[in-house]
Amino acid sequence: MSVVLALGGCTTDNLVSRYLLAERLWTEGKYPAAVQEFDRVTQMDPRGKTGLQALLRSANTQNLFLKNYPEALKKYENYLERAPQSPFAWETKKQIGEILYQKLEKYDQALALYDEMLKSAPNPEEAAGIHFRIAKSLFYLWRFPEAVSEFKGITKKFPQTHWADQAQYEWGMALYTQAAKMSAQEANRLYAQGIQVFRELAQKKGVKLELVVLAQFAEASCLEEVGQLEEASTKYRAILTSYPTPSVVQIKLNRLKVRMKQSSTSGEVKQ
Question: How far apart are CA 116 and CA 132, in angstroms?
Answer without folding.
Answer: 14
